[in-house]
Description:
six-stranded mixed sheet; 26% helix; single chain; transferase; Tetraacyldisaccharide 4'-kinase; 23% strand; nine-stranded mixed sheet; alpha/beta; lipid metabolism
Amino acid sequence: xxxxxxxxxxxxxxxxxxxxxxxxxxxxxxxxxxxxxxxxxxxxxxxxxxxxxxxxxxxxxxxxxxxxxxxxxxxxxxxxxxxxxxxxxxxxxxxxxxxxxxxxxxxxxxxxxxxxxxxxxxxxxxxxxxxxxxxxxxxxxxxxxxxxxxxxxxxxxxxxxxxxxxxxxxxxxxxxxxxxxxxxxxxxxxxxxxxxxxxxxxxxxxxxxxxxxxxxxxxxxxxxxxxxxxxxxxxxxxxxxxxxxxxxxxxxxxxxxxxxxxxxxxxxxxxxxxxxxxxxxxxxxxxxxxxxxxxxxxxxxxxxxxxxxxxxxxxxxxxxx
Length: 321
């Protein structure tokens, strides 16, 4: 919502509802903390990679980065997710690189494609973990999202913040974008800022694109070889993708922002010039392969997260000898 990122009279009118939201959230978390509401402890460590605010913050690239780093340390990793946007008739559902994104959700399928690790989705995280562990002995499990899912106990919490939007107007839903108060950041293990440092940041992440991949042929082209293109994005912050392309001196003749987790159909692309390349995010591409055109390309990004704090954080997961 645009008014989440400004001081608007709309936010002022919604403040009473935000107070009610805070009260319900606070009481609920307290009940879990006191053990009045039951929570599930997995037999292996669980790492939450989540958001404090609504909308895309770059959480999925962090999950992929973390899986790859832990694999390099010799650990066997599994991923669970709620599977937002999935339309499966049964849960929990094991997601593979070949799973239809309509059934498995775009982000879980993308994670499975990029990491080749077992991924399981379900609104019930306990069921997702139990099915995952039936399939493979995992040393630990990463939960894609779920910071506020207190029915699942966790060992490590990571929060990702979009540096461009920050915490918006700092208000809770529905007056602002926050699911919990900003003070919650003081209780997590790591705060990663996507783009640049902020007052809350432990580590800064850069999302680096290097090439584009043709959806039909699989051909790779360096991004600097593109001049004038069209571009679409169905992510939490589409302007971030468009700004990234412009920052590479690529001229965007046509752009369209779609809703996050948008379901695509071929007729939605009719207005774009078929004589010039159409660039999209990798998350969008997983939903477009079945009707892709020869001029469609997706742009994978790699999370670059470096520094001493990263090394000390990852050192916590070295396998015991």
